[in-house]
Structure formats: C-alpha cells, structure tokens
Amino acid sequence: MADSIDKRLDVCGVCCPLPIIRLGESIAALKPGQTLEIMGNDPVFEASVRDFCQANGHTILEVRRIDRRRIAMLIRVSA
Amino acid sequence: MPPVDSLSAAPQPSAKARRKGTILLVSGELDKALVAFEVAAGFQAMGMDMSMWFVLYGANCLLKPRALLSPAKWWRRLGAGAGRVPETDVALQHLVRGLNPAGAAHLPLSQLNLGGIGPWAVRRIMRAKGMAPLEDLIHRARDLGVRFTICQICVDAMAFSVPDDLIVQAEVKGVSTYYLEVAAADYNAAF
To answer: Which DSSP category does B104 fall into?
Structure first.
C-alpha cells in the first residue's frame, strides 16, 4: 500500500504536545500530496494526530499498531 | 474515519485566514508557565497564530537564568532599554530584581514547592515521562512562530533590560495593543 513514503518521523518517547509540534514542523517542509509516516507511543498519540489532521485538512491513509504501545500513521499532506 | 466532535463544525483554516489566540501569563510559577507554553506551542503547531503576553512575574521565565546571589542581579545598574524610564527609578527596584527568580530553571511551584525540592522532583518526573522542560518549550514556541510581548509598565517597574535580560526576542507594548489582539482572537486565556 505505502509504496513511496516521502518522510518518516519517529516521536516515540516524547509526550504531548511534542508529537504534534514535531509533526507540524515536518509537514511544513513537505509539498501538498506528499506522504509522511509518523510513529509514536504516547497514550494520546493517535487522537493527537487525528485531531491535527482534522484541523489542517490532511488525510490519514493508514493506521498500523506496531506493538502494545507504538502506532504508525500514514498521512497525505493537504493542498 | 476520524471521530466526530465539536471541532468538525469549525471552518477549515486556510493559508489566508488562520485562527488567532492569545495567552496572558501573570504567574511566575513553574506549573502555570509550563501549561501556558504547552498550550501556546501546541496550538501554534495545530495551526493557530499564537501571541503570548507577559506581565509582572510572568516574564520571569523569559529572563536569562541567574542564581539568587548572582552579581548580575545585585551589582549591576538598573539598565535602560525598550520601555524603560530610568529617570523615575527608585533604589527599591534593586531589591525586587535581586529577589525575583530569574530564568525558567529557577521558578518555584505554586504548591508543594518545599523550598525547591518540588520543582526538582517535577523536573525529574517530566524527564522520565518524555515531557519537554520549560526552557525547551520556550525555544520551541519561538521556533514555531509564537510571538512574545512584555507589558511596558512591568518592564519599567521590575527594571528588565529588553532585549539584554531575555532569552528570546520580545516586544514591549501596552494594554491597547493587548486589547486589539484579544478582540481579534478566537482563543484568549490567562494563567
């Protein structure tokens, strides 16, 4: 499915609001239509990324649970 | 599908019309300053243009770190700088500057301060949990584009030298400018 991921971001080990801050910085450097995979293990990580994408119009393409804590989410940057 | 909540009714922000927010930090305590900067940096990252205002002890977290007995606090002239009126200075301002905690690393807690053991314990717990320390959050907020403004009368009364005493760039403005920002903002909070 995820044939070409333009950027990968690992925010495991930091907690709210740092995942959102790092995600915002990374997405600002990408062009519309590019994809970013972010992986985190904060208990509110998935909700944070969903809220971020909802507020900024980005699309969540895929959500994968890596293990008990870690979740990876694939995002397409909006126009 | 993302969960539907109250945000879904909000208009999608575009590059032209970003939502605005202001935060007024009055307190010089570590817990309140942390919340203020977490909200500011988090909201800025979510896409809101945040502006932080600092009055009275709220500006302590922006000062360069100085220990209580630092000569830079006690043996320096009350400096000039933006917003200062040195002609009306009084000697008591030396005492205020000397006793006032300077720097994000020297702020007390509002509860369970225990003579400095409380902030030390909070920092240790925060590090273990992967939370950003206050100094780091201040710099992240600045890098994200959060704007900082210090109240002019506080700068003058507490004898801050702007920009020499500060770790970040800040403007010195009055309540009329604060009013204009608050009236144009979607989110206003005071800590």
So the answer is: G
